[in-house]
Amino acid sequence: MITPAQTLTLLAAIILIAGVATFVWIALATVARIAPRASLAMAAANAAASASLTLHVLRGVLPDAFTYWPGDVLAITSFALLGAAVPGITTRELVWKPGAVVVAVAALLLLAQPYEGDLRWQARVVNGAGAGLTLAAGMLAWRALGRSATGRRTPAPLALPLFLIAALMAARGLETFTNPGRTPDLRVPTDFNLVFLWTALVLALLQNATLAFLVLMRLINRIERLLERDPLTDTLNRRAFDQALEQSHAWLKRGRGYALVMIDMDRFKQLNDTLGHAAGDAALRQMVLELQPCVREVDRFGRLGGEEFCVLLPDTDIAGAALVAERMRMLVDEAPLRWLEQDWHLSASFGIAEAERDDASGDLVLARADAALYRAKNQGRNVVQA
């Protein structure tokens, strides 16, 4: 036989989990600085859920004005904050306005309903709003996790706990039609309440653990990006570019060719000596920015050292590489560096080479592109040479 002590124990366990999760998310936001806005939103969501359930337990102990309406509004607010935090973790953009509208409308609807009788309409508003907000967050997370700008896919089923929470809230809302009068009170020792509370306990743990995993994945991705990116220009560093070249050369044996475009800024030492190293850094960043429109998603753009860069063009022959290099040359040539209220003309020389079947390694292709670049420098700079 189910006793009131069982339901109260489960409620206390959920409140404790939400309270602990609040402090964990605050630590992730303020100490670890991992997705701080989304982590703070998750902390607020857990705090609102904990406060809502605490007020629910205190019904009949504190005045009704402090427990019923505030507790229900806090419950909906917790779902709205969860819905805002999820896209903040998956897409780095907090989506809070729809949730705020839902909370405001639901709060007004609850205020218009007197907290008397079986409270079935209040339960329908709270559970309906919670189910809708969580379902929307789950759908957004599923789409965001299913695609990856880096080519690495995060398993979309990680959004499954959100759908389960939405189903749980919908089931509780539907139960108000079959068992009105008992559903709104979680303390009542019924079979439905016992199943609901156990499921809520498991999902609270699962949801927080899943989103914490996604936050840690973001940290890992950030570290990996720092390890493979040049800090000045955000292009691939030499190590990462060499790895990309090695992979492309392996594909060459399977019939997929590639070409290289070597780039070297002209008179870079003169620019540094005249305007200073800060101007030199600005010039390199500007050149990379000008070249970006010519770089496809499948291409690999890396800094080999100093003012020397290289672009790896998969599935491209020497003619295609020449067209890309010429467009790059024109873009750099047409955009002077503005520094200390004066313009400094920028230009670059380009050497291109195509991989051949008998090339033992990508280093041979790189050496041919470098030799072509050397010839371009000897021809007066600001030219493309193959």
UniProtKB/TrEMBL annotation:
Keyword Phosphoprotein in record: no
E.C. designation(s): 2.7.7.65
Transmembrane segments: 6-28, 68-87, 94-113, 125-145, 157-174, 194-216
Ranges in coiled-coil conformation: none
A Pfam family hit: GGDEF
Keywords: Membrane, Transmembrane, Transmembrane helix
Keyword NADP: no
Domain GGDEF: 256-386
Catalyzed reactions: 2 GTP = 3',3'-c-di-GMP + 2 diphosphate
The protein, known as: diguanylate cyclase
Native source species: Roseateles saccharophilus
